[in-house]
Predict the 3D structure of the following.
Amino acid sequence: MIEEFKKFALRGNVVDLAVGVIIGAAFGAIVASMVADIIMPIVGALTGGLDFSNYFISLSKNVNATAYVDAKKQGAVLGYGQFLTVAINFIIIAFVLFLAIRAINKMKKEEPAAAPPEPTAEVKLLTEIRDALKK
């Protein structure tokens, strides 16, 4: 059983998938930082200092905070600003991945399909016989 598990775990597909997941998590952290620390402040500056992450709707009468983090501690809130931030994160990640895959595909040189090999003398002879029989 251990030998069978070792074959499964060390198969190329599983190892490649594990590497992909680890790199994907690291890439997600980079993009999340890019959105939170670079893009959203620029969007906030362009929109007059708006900070999407603090947009929320209070669902409880006990909530009187102005910051989302504090409001969550006071009661139930609907944090649609956080959702907007995550949605923008997703769009940026999808776009960056699209660009990366597009660049990788361009780097791969498509080799033209090789011409089929010339038929052997036997095949040519059999083709001539077949064509003669059809006539």
Summary: The longest strand covers residues 57-58. The two ends are 66 Å apart (CA to CA).
